[in-house]
Amino acid sequence: MTLQQDRTGQDVDRTDLVSLTIDGVQVSVPKDTLVIRAAEQVGIQIPRFCDHPLLAPVGACRQCLVDVPDAGNGRGFPKPQASCTLPVAEGMVVSTQATSEVADKAQQGVMEFLLINHPLDCPVCDKGGECPLQNQALSNGRGESRFAASGGVKRTYPKPINISAQVLLDRERCVLCARCTRFSEQIAGDPFIALVERGALQQVGIYEKEPFESYFSGNTIQICPVGALTSAEYRFRSRPFDLVSTPAVAEHDACGSAIRVDHRRGKVMRRLAGNDPEVNEEWITDKDRFAFHYAQQADRLTYPQVRDTDGSLRPASWTEAFAVAARGLAEAGAVGVLPGGRLTAEDAYAYSMFARVALGTNDVDFRARPLSAEEADFLASEVVLTGPWDGAVTYADLEAARTVVLVGLEPEDEAGAIFLRLRKASGRGTRVLAVAPFSSRGLRKMNGTLVPAVPGAEAEVIESLADRAEHGIGADTVVLVGERLATSPGALTAAAALARRTGARLAWVPRRAGDRGAVEAGCLPTLLPGGRPVADAAARVDAATTWGVRSLPEAPGRDADQIVAALVSGELGGVVVGGVDPDDTADPAATRAALRAARFVVALEVRETDVTREADVVFPVAPVSDKAGTFITWEGRPRPFEAVFTNPGSLPDLRVLAGIAEELAVLGRGRPLGFRTVADVRARMEELGGWDGERPRPAADPLRPSSLGAEGMALATWKQMLDLGSMQDGDAALRATARMPVARVSAATYDVTGPTVTVTGDRGSVTLPAEITDDLVDGVVWVPANSFGDGVLAGLASPGSRVSVKGAGA
Amino acid sequence: MTDTLTPVLTAGWADERSWTLDAHVRRGGYAALDKAFAMGPDAVIAAVKDSGLRGRGGAGFPTGMKWSFIPQDNPNPKYLVVNADESEPGTCKDIPLMMASPHTLVEGVILSSFAIRAHTAFIYIRGEVLHVIRRVQAAVAEAYAAGHLGRDIHGSGYDLDVVVHAGAGAYICGEETALLEGLEGRRGQPRLRPPFPAVAGLYASPTVINNVESISSVPSIIAHGPEWFAGMGTEKSKGFGIFSLSGHVQRPGQYEAPLGITLRELIDLAGGIRQKSDGQRHELKFWTPGGSSTPLLTAEHLDVPLDFEGVGAAGSMLGTRALQIFDETVCVVRAVLRWTEFYKHESCGKCTPCREGTWWLVQTLARLEKGQGTEADLDLLLDQCDNILGRSFCALGDGATSPISSSIQHFREEYLAHLTHGGCPFDPAAATAWADRTVGANA
């Protein structure tokens, strides 16, 4: 818990150190360090409940009382002091429970008080076995209860109460440390829980019309020092001492949050936040915490399948499936590869090499979402091969920046750890600007400023940023561009130009955990692994030599949209598809048509999907819990993890691709990939390394089609953190805490449409409750991208395009 | 009345419609304003310092020194907050003062605000006393209408607005930082210090918080000079104060006298301990010098000088000079249990020792009152008190232990008598005001 303090401590100038004596041991710590933390430095654990290193001190529980015979001025404190609120002073002398009878008695007294109204129901409490109250009652309390012996009557409550669909509160267990309420107010900015009533009847409460719906509510459960807060998901499921804990990396966004997976007999029971001060500190989103049942659903694929003569899919052995897949691909003609954005870097590398070496094509693109050629150029010239080691933007830089500009990125929905870090930074003076159609709740919580922009017209707004002195764009600015900007012509180019012109630093924040790794691994039609441009002959030779092939295809490949088009037109005959949901792609109908039109489809999936139902060969692949791998964060920071489970029937994508490649080589196409395990691939990636030649120059500013004069309203949309995404399947309580889908309209529009609107685009229409959004840019309507039906792309229109908005009654 | 009394604040209480502006002006009210405006703020602070006025809310912190802590280079506005959340059991001086002469308070607020360069002042009045809130509101409105408040007061160029704020009914809001929380619209719970209110108080701005009586004393100091004020009282506890006698005396009420007067003198002024129907007098058994949070004293302390040092030396605190007088008919265990129930009810819940400790103390005391338990329970009680006193977040928890530890110190035998008697050996009716009236006498 104190790692961060240590790190900041290391950076502090020696002259800023303060020396004090704790239990006779001299220790020097940075000034303003709290005594409780200084004591940890010398290995003394002072018991505590309300204290938390990432929350402001409150001094409420009084468990950490210590004796201070000398406050550093020669005089002592007459009374024991709360070490969690007392800053160190030069020459201070502190006696903790280890050396002072006064401190020990004070702590024993507080512990005894804490237990009088506590039910002592450890045998049936979820926290039993990992409970700070239980542990510290044993280490710093008395064995027998004088309260019970003297006939005391405890305060009781009906139990438990739901403070949200996911979080339950057992009030009689609560020690009123206020960690949960302080977290919600100070860290998440969702103060939907508060202490109410007084005295021993004080309790955590919610306002009746506002349940505790926060994307970060699960953190309160984890930091609760007793069993007062539990999740609907984990309550009564298991005992901590039956669990095996494995460190892992969260797979739901590009933040790379450290998590801890607790599992029992091959099943994940729960996930907790890991502690990584450089990345997610001690917090994770509720999606990272609760959304893991997707891998345990009934539609999980467990064996390979091949299309039978009667047209149905039948089970097959791995060897048969490899052979059938290879033969089918060999006979299909030209083949494209759509790996999807959820891969580990190792799997992405396998797809990239499989396309080039086994299939002899550059037709590979991980982007299972609206994309552009401009984006591919941007990734090649500005993003690939950057990382914390060479000065790329990190989480710490977000905190240090004077200004952070968000473009095409809604961190609270799309990158929770960035949101929390920015919110922390904004409380310390960092200014957040968002180029967006309206001030989102997340932006307001970051005290941010809206720079209004119609979706699709971001480029002009980005260009004008530097001209406005009040924005203060300069070398101490960080510009974060989201992947959604790909659909806004010229925006990425403008952002790169802005950075070059002003000295501001730029980072690209994709949505999915595997996106950045796929860029590095070269799952793009114009990039080979390690940032090697396909167009650069030397780069091709470099890769070909390492891969042991004579040459690599020279022509840049088709991007995902072009692969879809080529399948429909018949230019491509086969396709290898990873974790791609057609409804996520730029044109879902076209993608479905392409799958139907393809002569041969190989699908690698965790669960049955629309793609596997169309496929000729289906390979079950491992979810992240069943394989080792590496996610690369938006910063470019590798986050390796090991497998949680050893599951011989659940192979990583790279093993499947290696199997197909070996069969293809037998048929005379390409050559084997030369690896079969994650460790092999890691070694190959290491061997290949990054490209040290010239980076591709940024492409020319693309044409910006003008949408002026077009009919209807511009459609703004993004995916909310909690929505209908298939990786949230299986956790009803989590989904119940999602925000209600609404259409955001201006007050003027609302006056015309009334409280329910029907939004109609070229792909369908949807009827949603309307919500007035005060600063929504004129002529824009916003809807969540995947919170109803098949989502916006399949059922409404393309983001940025024109839609009509009418009152539902009209 | 003898000349032991020094009626200053209480001088006009018996006047016709004493609470009106007219009545106040007839006694020279608001005259001190022009004098103060001519002196300038620093001179007003110096005068209050020189007078030796110490906080009348209980703690006795020198008022002028408190004012001088306000950092005048802080760019934030400065605020004066008057603590009128009088809720301590036994304490009843501010409420009669505000009822009888609210303009004395308002005048004091103007002078004090001027001294600390505040342009907004708040009077935080206990929510339960609606009649007092209305009276102070009316006085403030009168003062505005007469030009004593608002823009350019008396042509001095000094502006002041006064806000009368009604509390929501919590003893804890008498604690100054909890009061600030309440004033800002949050739950009344004490704040972590530092920062102290003088640096970051109301709305994180420099704030002076003073008791009603302290502020009300300022006009007389300005009018008559600090030497006049310092000429009363004792060496370190200067001036006068309102002594509120309640309970078993013949004439309970407010007695304004110099600090250092003794309870013996005050009881004489109040007509002595109450008489029985046969003309005999009851005997003083125990008393609180400054409300229930100050350790109780006994008849042997009758000659203790009632100033900060004297009462401190006797093992208690001067507090709010709320002298609750109990005669020999009162069961000390019963009295202490009632007080402890009050603390349990009023504990804000923020810190463990006070929240849980008062919950348990009540249970232990209730059993003792019923004659259940053993002598060891007295040691348990004292140990509980030891674990609360000095371990709580604010002084509420400390105060809750005072009646218990002091009563066991002075009346241990009486506690034990409950155990041997198998219940309370006292007749609770004997302590009541109608105790000596028989049914026949009433007829």
Automatic annotation (TrEMBL), chain A:
Name this protein carries in UniProt: NADH-quinone oxidoreductase
Write out the catalysed reaction.
Answer: a quinone + NADH + 5 H(+)(in) = a quinol + NAD(+) + 4 H(+)(out)
Molecular function terms, GO-annotated = NADH dehydrogenase (quinone) (non-electrogenic) activity
Work out whether the entry's keyword set contains Translocase: yes
What the entry lists under Pfam families is as follows:
Fer2_4, Fer4_NDSU1, Fer4_Nqo3, Molybdopterin, NADH-G_4Fe-4S_3
- Cofactor(s) required, per the database record: [2Fe-2S] cluster; [4Fe-4S] cluster
CDD domains documented for this protein: fer2
> What family does this belong to?
Belongs to the complex I 75 kDa subunit family.
Under which EC number(s) is this enzyme classified?
7.1.1.-
- Location of the 4Fe-4S His(Cys)3-ligated-type domain: 102-141
UniProtKB/TrEMBL annotation, chain B:
Q: Name one Pfam family in it.
A: NADH_4Fe-4S
Q: Reaction catalysed? A: a quinone + NADH + 5 H(+)(in) = a quinol + NAD(+) + 4 H(+)(out)
Q: Which domain of life is it from?
A: Bacteria
Q: Which residues form the NADH-ubiquinone oxidoreductase 51kDa subunit iron-sulphur binding domain?
A: 333-378
Q: Which UniProt keywords apply?
A: 4Fe-4S, Flavoprotein, FMN, Iron, Iron-sulfur, Metal-binding, NAD, Oxidoreductase, Quinone, Translocase
Record InterPro entries? ComplexI_51kDa_subunit, NADH-UbQ_OxRdtase_51kDa_CS, NADH-UbQ_OxRdtase_suF, Nuo51_FMN-bd, Nuo51_FMN-bd_sf, Nuop51_4Fe4S-bd, Nuop51_4Fe4S-bd_sf, Soluble_ligand-bd
> Do the record's keywords include Transport?
no
Q: Which SMART domains does this chain map to?
A: NADH_4Fe-4S
- Cofactor(s), names only, from the UniProt record: FMN; [4Fe-4S] cluster
Q: Which Gene Ontology terms cover its molecular function?
A: NADH dehydrogenase (quinone) (non-electrogenic) activity
**Which Enzyme Commission number(s) are listed?**
7.1.1.-
What does the sequence similarity comment in the record state about its family? Answer: Belongs to the complex I 51 kDa subunit family.
Q: What function does the entry list?
A: NDH-1 shuttles electrons from NADH, via FMN and iron-sulfur (Fe-S) centers, to quinones in the respiratory chain.
Specify the protein name. NADH-quinone oxidoreductase subunit F
Organism equals Nocardioides oceani
User: Encoded by which gene?
Assistant: nuoF
